[in-house]
Structures are given as C-alpha cells and as structure tokens.
Amino acid sequence: xxxxxxxxxxxxxxxxxxxxxxxxxxxxxxxxxxxxxxxxxxxxxxxxxxxxxxxxxxxxxxxxxxxxxxxxxxxxxxxxxxxxxxxxxxxxxxxxxxxxxxxxxxxxxxxxxxxxxxxxxxxxxxxxxxxxxxxxxxxxxxxxxxxxxxxxxxxxxxxxxxxxxxxxxxxxxxxxxxxxxxxxxxxxxxxxxxxxxxxxxxxxxxxxxxxxxxxxxxxxxxxxxxxxxxxxxxxxxxxxxxxxxxxxxxxxxxxxxxxxxxxxxxxxxxxxxxxxxxxxxxxxxxxxxxxxxxxxxxxxxxxxxxxxxxxxxxxxxxxxxxxxxxxxxxxxxxxxxxxxxxxxxxxxxxxxxxxxxxxxxxxxx
Length: 365
Ligand SMILES: *[C@@H]1O[C@H](CO)[C@@H](O)[C@H](O)[C@H]1NC(C)=O
Ligand SMILES: *[C@@H]1O[C@H](CO)[C@@H](O)[C@H](O)[C@H]1NC(C)=O
Ligand SMILES: *[C@@H]1O[C@H](CO)[C@@H](O)[C@H](O)[C@H]1NC(C)=O
Description:
Elements: H1 5-17, E1 41-46, H2 61-64, E2 72-79, E3 87-88, H3 99-110, E4 114-121, H4 136-152, E5 157-162, H5 168-182, E6 187-190, H6 208-215, E7 221-225, H7 237-243, E8 252-257, H8 269-283, E9 288-292, H9 307-316, H10 328-338, H11 347-352
Parallel strand pairs: 1-2, 1-9, 2-4, 4-5, 5-6, 6-7, 7-8, 8-9
Antiparallel strand pairs: 2-3
Helix pairs in contact: 5-6, 8-9
The protein binds 2-acetamido-2-deoxy-beta-D-glucopyranose (3 copies).
C-alpha cells in the first residue's frame, strides 16, 4: 500500500472523475463472518520481513509482550507475476529467508491469532487481464499458485488488496473460488480505499457494494484504508458516510497507517481513540482497527514495533489477551532456523552471530 508518484496522479484523476450516477447499496448486510467472535478485530499487516542489515524481524513480541490482543496478522505482500511464479515481496515464499517467519506464524496461530496472507497491494500485476482477472486458462494457472501457497503455509485466510482496475466478474470469481476451495472457515477479506465504500474515488475499478451484494456472505470484513488521501480518521465523518450507504458496521475496519513513514493521513493515538469511541457510541460495535504495517509502527518504531498493538489493544479490546506456549523444542528450532533466515547477502554474518531474538527466554512450557 505504499504510494508511488504514478499512483498519486491516478488518485488525483479519480477524485475528479469519481461520481457514479446510480448509487448501488449493499443489501447483503447479514453477519455471516466466520470470525465474528473476534469482534472488534485488531488486524496488522506484516510486510517488511527483514531489518536494514538483513535480519528477520520477529513477529512474536505481538504475543509475548503483555497487554496485546491482536486478532489477525496478514503476511504480505504476495504478488502474481505474469510468466513467472508467485513471490512474497521480492522472493519465492519457500526461500530460506522466510523460514523463521513461517515457523513463527505457527506460534501465532497456536496463540489464537488468525494468520492470513494478502495478495496484491501497490505493485500492480496480480489482477491483470492476463493473470487473476484473465480468461479461464490464465486465471487457473495463476490462481493455482496462490492456492498452493495458502495450502503450503496453512494460511487461515486471504486479504485481497486490489489497487489496479479489475473487473466485477473477476473479483467475484476470485472470492467464490477461494470459498469453494478452502471451505466455510477460511477468512476472505478485501482492502479497499475507504472512499470506495462510500461512492467516492477508488483504485479497484469494480463496485464494492455490488461485490457485497453478489458475494458478501463469503467476505468476512473490509480493511478500509483511511489514508493516503482516501479518507481519514481524524473524525468519524468518513466512516459515517460508509455506514450511510447501508454497510454493516461490524464488517468495516478503521484502517490506519501505523506511522507517518508508511503513508499520508497518520492520526495521533489520542485522536484515533476519540474517533473510535465516537464510532462505537454511534454505530454500536465496529469491525475493528487495521494497521499498515508492523515493523516501524509508532510509538515504538523499529526497535519496539509491538507497542502500537499495545496502544490499539487499550483503545479497542483491553483484557482479551491470547495465551502462548513455547516449549524448549520450539525455542531451539526457532534459534536454529534463525541462522539460515538472512536475506540474501546477509547469510554469512547471520550464521555466525547469535540471534537478536532470545527464543530460549520465551520458554514457558
Ligand atoms: C472507480 O474509479 C474510476 C476512475 O476514477 C471510475 O471511472 C469508476 O467509475 C469508479 N468505479 C466505481 C465503481 O466507483
Ligand atoms: C516456477 O516453479 C516451478 C515449480 O516449482 C519451476 O519448475 C519453474 O522453473 C518456476 N518458474 C520460474 C520462472 O521461476
Ligand atoms: C480513550 O478515551 C477514553 C475517553 O476519553 C479514555 O477513558 C481512555 O483512557 C482512552 N484510552 C486510551 C488508550 O487512550
């Protein structure tokens, strides 16, 4: 969801052009979500996987630090690449640099956090006419790569972040196919810019109200991006205008950049607290809070990124902290894997030095 100049220009253009004549409103507002018991949700994207010297960034503080009640972690960004294989950011997901990360996701799941993937984002290509938005043969070819990654890494859901024009039929096909292949418990979400839910500007081309009408029962929630010029959370106005379009408030998340470094429209945590309190007073329970992204969140920045989740837990869902069990065997395995999880170029130094994450200190069973 990082923003390029090219996209900024597109954004300007869409503000000028955004006024659909016949407003479609979502009518399928029934709560069919398979994770409704996790309301209000606290959702965090995990995209930057390695620090500036190439060491993996541990996600475990999100469960080992106290007073955090994260509900969903979205590992990202998966990209479909025409003529090639699926990547997670710049590398195939099975490369050794991700081995610590995938092992850690197992612990996150054991602690009750839903671990999902996200496909798409700011880098276009995943939803082209010759990939996931293509004719049957192309769709089958590239969808199979995504399906296999979900199976391989035992992802519990998939967030579809369409930031390029995609057809209405194409998005419905993708949602329905994920549901058909992974069954009723699989969590399917989308990540529209917030204005796209309220008849304003959009990046995806298709209509979200129409998608909700066609496939809403298969969509657990929407990670609405209230940033980068697409709405904001300095007041309730943007969220209110979505609810006025008949959306179910429990399906809409207040999506926020976790630091001004990740995009425009960062709102102070005091201000955000106020907005969230007012939203819940007005609309009853809301879908929750989403943050983009983990590694550099305020107030802890890169040295203590989990502090963001502590502050959000205090705002949104205090006293709902999941439990974690780490055995000696698990801690030893993570320590071993860490040495092989350097980003290419950093492998040598990683094999020698001790991990900067003390897995052995986390043993509690
Ligand atoms: C999305 O934005 C494009 C570009 O501004 C516009 O042409 C289109 O009508 C919008 N679609 C919807 C469903 O609002
Ligand atoms: C894609 O993956 C397949 C199976 O792992 C492999 O045989 C093929 O060489 C890969 N293609 C590219 C372009 O990397
Ligand atoms: C949020 O605001 C409420 C009402 O003003 C206040 O009681 C609460 O302590 C605040 N929470 C946080 C985490 O700032």
